[in-house]
Amino acid sequence: MTSVRTRPAVGELLRDWRQRRRLSQLDLAGEAGVSARHLSFVETGRARPSREMVLHLAEHLEVPLRERNDLLVAAGFAPVYGRRGLDDPDMAAVRRAIDLVLAAYEPYPAVVVDRSWNLVAGNRSIALLTDGVADELLVPPVNVLRLSLHPEGLAPRILNLPQWRRHVLHRLDREAHLTGDGRLRALHDELAALPGGADRAPPDGIVVPLWVRAGDDVLSFLSTVTTFGTAVDLTAAELSIEAFLPADAHTADVLRALAGP
């Protein structure tokens, strides 16, 4: 005999997301404006939620769009969030926005990555961060987190590698937990196994700098991440723009000089 693996019910999935967000049924019911009794019935399968209720609860649980589609399918409804490639004609506005933002950050390095931190696009200044990186790490899909922490990547040039490594792993661990994405969890475990030391000192500030050796210079960067917060297409919603801004006047001067007139 063979066993048939059934898809989790929508109530189970909603309960998993609620527990991941560390909310009680009463907490979620209060935030979403529904009765705790009805929410309990939905989670246990005694009540079938409407399409609108699934999306309403998903919004309050901050479920990523990809997983909202999974909730809808589990509830017996069609997905509502499409996924188109960036080369699709309908994505022309997104491509223009990406190009404008990347150009605006010049001469400071900036990259566009997908949900798995694979490189989608970058401006000319990222050559400063990829200089000397092993060729195999630059074969698409290029994972920018792997590139930064790998001993054949940027890692040997990062002067505060233990501190930066802790920052990257903490961020990746949080994203894996919030999204439930197994690929992010696998990436976290892979990067955590790389050498680089452990920074066990308590954080001394909100912002973690990145100190990179570039020839005879030491450049200091602050990292910022921007997302397309109102996107309803999966491709656009899962894109992030990470920019490395100068943390001191010297770094700004060096980057401007490298960019030329």
Automatic annotation (TrEMBL):
It comes from the Bacteria. InterPro entries: Cro/C1-type_HTH, Lambda_DNA-bd_dom_sf, MLTR_LBD. One of its GO terms (molecular function) is DNA binding. This is Helix-turn-helix domain-containing protein. The lineage of its organism: Bacteria, Bacillati, Actinomycetota, Actinomycetes, Geodermatophilales. Residues 14-68 form the HTH cro/C1-type domain.
